Amino acid sequence: MSQQMEQVSEWLEQLKGQSLLIYKEEIATGKQEVMDIDQVSFKLDSVSFNRNRHANIDDYLAFKEIVLYGQGTIQTDQGESGLPERAYEIPLTGDFKTEKNADNMRVETDQAIYTISVQ
């Protein structure tokens, strides 16, 4: 596991049982502008890191992903709904980087920027 994934893993493990706010900014393909914003309220039960052997070049499935398990809701432009399968996936597409601050963790991938904080 890379140093960045270890940092995210350790931080998230400490937050089990707590309520999180996940702010996702989806980046337009080939551009540096945000095209969509989602906000997730989430009570974290557990976390896992998956490697997908069947990932493909069009990034529909990422080679690596962080999966947060628990109960929560997602707020999008279309309104609010419950999370499917009590899980929230953060696909780690392309080169990703992380940044930990006192209040939050930021995970930046080729497709989106995720800011995770405790509510």
Give the distance, in angstroms, between the N- and C-terminal Cα atoms. 28 Å
CATH topology: Protein Yojf, Chain: A
Structural class: mainly beta
Q: Estimate the mean pLDDT confidence.
A: 85
Query: In what range is the share of β-strand residues?
Result: over 45%
Task: Spell the H/E element sequence.
Answer: HEEEEEEEE
Give a quick account of the main beta sheet: strands, pairing sense, barrel closure.
8 strands, antiparallel
Report on the structure:
The chain has 119 residues and is mostly beta strands. The protein has a single domain, classed as Protein Yojf, Chain: A (Distorted Sandwich), CATH 2.70.180. Helices cover 10% and strands 55% of the residues. It has one helix at residues 3-14; strands at 19-27, 34-51, 64-76, 79-82, 87-91, 97-100, 104-108, 112-118. Strands 1, 2, 3, 4, 5, 6, 7 and 8 form an eight-stranded antiparallel β-sheet that branches. Strand 3 (64-76) and strand 4 (79-82) form a beta hairpin. The protein is globular and about 35 Å long. The termini are far apart. The model has no long low-confidence stretch (mean pLDDT 85).
What topology does this entry show?
Elements: H1 3-14, E1 19-27, E2 34-51, E3 64-76, E4 79-82, E5 87-91, E6 97-100, E7 104-108, E8 112-118
Antiparallel strand pairs: 1-2, 1-8, 2-3, 3-4, 3-5, 6-7, 7-8
Task: Describe the structure concisely for a colleague.
With 119 residues, the chain is mainly beta. It has 1 helix and 8 strands.
Features:
119 residues; mainly beta; Protein Yojf, Chain: A; eight-stranded antiparallel beta sheet; 10% helix; 55% strand; globular
